[in-house]
Write a sequence for this structure.
């Protein structure tokens, strides 16, 4: 079949955009380039891969899992059903940490990424701060495997620890502790495609969504440098309550809540209070 025929075929199963994205992925070209090779005849094996993937899409599976990788902050990361699909909001979290380190002129930070998933946060920071020492932590062996594969394919040298939050992390002082923990509230309505496909271990954070922050905050004081940044991604309704929790657990801290591009509270930063 030709590229053009395959696009027409794909539209029976999914949107035109997704069909083109999928086909472009298997042909290893940019979706726009497809239009320049409409008459090209595609080999049987690739056609079959494409057709199977269209079926998966029509069964409401996320395209990122079907393709098996995503772009995060310009870098390519493998993903599978064991890990959360990285969101734009998390790119904003990374951007804020990057700005903080640049402003403070810290070129060799020690960074801890708790609940690393595919590794997008820790690995992207390592990519930008080559002299940093980055440690990625996750409770699941299968999840760590994905993060390890990503470190390898990006050529980044980082540490991995299988640990339930701090339980297996040696006491050391970090410049930055970052986490995008599960924070969806038990009764919160979320999109069907998320609920049915992404790992609930990475999504749900208990009745008020704050269980994982409580576990992290319980031990965090032992792991902070004198001058530190804690960066959390948060649920959009959780900022004020989490701020209270932090005020009660980390003495002399300054808490800042930041909105995402959709104008929802999405990040919370903690620094030493110097006022
Ligand atoms: N942002 C994700 C969502 O809305 C949730 C991520 C998380 O719980 N850390 O589906």
């Amino acid at each position: 079949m030709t590229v053009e025929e395959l696009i027409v075929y794909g539209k029976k199963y999914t949107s035109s955009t997704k069909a083109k994205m999928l086909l472009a992925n298997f042909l290893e070209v940019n979706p726009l380039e497809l239009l320049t090779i409409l008459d090209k005849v595609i080999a049987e094996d690739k056609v079959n891969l494409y057709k199977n993937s269209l079926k998966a899409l029509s069964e409401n599976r996320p395209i990122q899992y079907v393709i098996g990788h995503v772009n995060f902050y310009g870098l390519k990361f493998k993903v599978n059903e064991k890990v959360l699909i990285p969101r734009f909001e998390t790119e904003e979290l990374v951007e804020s940490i990057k700005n903080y380190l640049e402003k403070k002129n810290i070129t060799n930070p020690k960074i801890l990424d708790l609940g690393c998933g595919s590794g997008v946060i820790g690995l992207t920071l390592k990519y930008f701060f080559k002299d940093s020492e980055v440690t990625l932590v996750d409770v699941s062996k299968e999840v760590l495997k994905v993060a390890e594969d990503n470190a390898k394919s990006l050529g980044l040298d980082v540490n991995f620890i299988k640990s339930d939050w701090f339980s297996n992390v040696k006491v050391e002082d970090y410049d930055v502790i970052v986490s995008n923990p599960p924070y969806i509230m038990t009764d919160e309505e979320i999109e069907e495609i998320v609920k049915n496909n992404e790992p609930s271990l990475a999504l749900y954070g208990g009745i008020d969504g704050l269980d994982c922050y409580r576990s992290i905050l319980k031990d965090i004081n032992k792991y902070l440098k004198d001058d530190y940044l804690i960066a959390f991604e948060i649920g959009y309704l959780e900022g004020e309550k989490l701020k209270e929790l932090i005020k009660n657990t980390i003495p002399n801290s300054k808490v800042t809540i930041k909105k995402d591009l959709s104008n929802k509270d999405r990040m919370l930063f903690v620094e030493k209070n110097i006022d």
